[in-house]
Specification:
19% of the residues lie in helices and 48% in strands. The chain is α+β, with helices and mostly antiparallel strands and 121 residues long. It has a single domain, classed as Pnp Oxidase, Chain A (Roll). A seven-stranded antiparallel β-sheet has the order 2-1-5-6-7-4-3. This is FMN-binding protein.
Length: 121
């Protein structure tokens, strides 16, 4: 599901926007370099993201936008994707421990189970 082009985008620095898509709108940002991808699951360190966590209690649907100007896109320089998924916050377990070792400041890990990834540019 996560194409080679998307993986290439994630290997370059860029902004990731995380948007809840249920009844409660919440938006936050992080960096491509903070993400870990394992098959069709993305893990993000969370220190804040309290509005995202609250919104996910009633609907765990998320939209992530990712991009990098360093990767060729559909019309020239710059590639970007919309990633649709389901989010869950982890406070323990192997994924939490691995991210905590990378980012000692995190309090939780946002796990995104990818449903669809679509290149936009």
């Amino acid at each position: 599901m996560l194409s080679e082009k998307l993986r290439e985008v994630l290997s370059h620095e860029g902004v990731v926007t995380i948007i809840t898509t249920g009844d409660t709108l919440a938006v936050t940002n992080t960096w491509n370099s903070y993400l870990t991808v394992d098959d069709d699951t993305i893990y993000l360190p969370a220190a804040g993201m309290h509005s995202i966590q609250e919104a996910l209690k009633t609907d765990n649907s998320l939209l992530l936008t990712v991009g990098s100007k360093d990767v060729a896109g559909t019309q020239g320089p710059g590639a970007g994707f919309h990633i649709t998924g389901r989010g869950t916050f982890l406070e323990e377990g192997p994924e939490f421990d691995a991210k905590k070792a990378q980012f000692p400041w995190l309090t939780r890990v946002l796990q995104v189970d990818v449903i669809k990834a679509e290149q936009k540019i």
